[in-house]
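lol ok so funny story. i was supposed to be doing the assay writeup but got distracted and ended up predicting the structure for this chain instead. priorities right. anyway since i did it might as well share w the group, maybe its usefull for someone
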Amino acid sequence: MNKTALPSALDAPVRLLNLAVGRVAVYQSGCNDPELPPLLLVHSVNAAASSAEVVPLFEHAKAQRTVWAMDLPGFGLSDRPDIAYSPQLMTDAVSAVLADLCAESGEHQVDVLAVSLACEFAARAAQARPLHIRRLAMVSPTGFSAKRRPHGPPGTTRVIPWLDRWLRSSVWGERIFRQLTRPGVIRYFLRRTFGRPEIDEALWRYAVATTRQPGARHAPLRFVSGALFSADVPELYRQLDLPVWVSMPTRGDFTDYERRSEFEDRPGWQFHRVQGGALPYFEDSKAFHERLDGFWR
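and the output, tada:
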């Protein structure tokens, strides 16, 4: 694809961290607050994902405390090498950014908010670095649908091997990615995410732009093959030993949370039905943060 320089998704300085997977972009802003530790925001995973998905969250948080937002490997301003993207690779990147945030801020713990599939990476990072994460907020997380039962031991994924090999080795992988990221198709999927015809137009424009970068297909095609979905999500969540806040949308494609009954009685867990689609803070930021801010404090 022809490269057009991708602008920043957020109005904030960008730092590039050199990790084993390549450079990972982190937006940094905010102010010090003795009552609130720094906050790390992690966007979802899809064909056109980036930190543009957390703009309202970033703008709200930076007036209250130090806030970082990372572009996961393979997305946004981060490097997009042709490698085997996996839950562990994404978790390692989140863990590395967490360690850097703690070192940079001088804090022993930070808060984390993750969106959709990234909630699984954040949960694994909380297991790997239990002393680094104080509280975890999960917005429209995967893993609670009654339609998808766990079907693998710890550390395994829901990858479809033949599809993964075909997408990564065939010229059809590039063609499929181009079809998935046509402007009209991106708009279609955002409408399903919002659960209504009206979407955030700035988010759509950035989604189109980020898919036009070199290497943009590599991580999303692993998503399509199932290689970024963990097969042991319920057990992963059950092992969390920290306060967890879950936002469940009322509209769109991500409203099945029937398996929450397995977690509702667990100490420290909160489930909230939030009016709107899977990214409700784009629709009514005030109402969303009235619920969330109490959890942080």
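The first helix runs from residue 55 to 61. The chain has a mean pLDDT of 93.
back to the writeup now i swear
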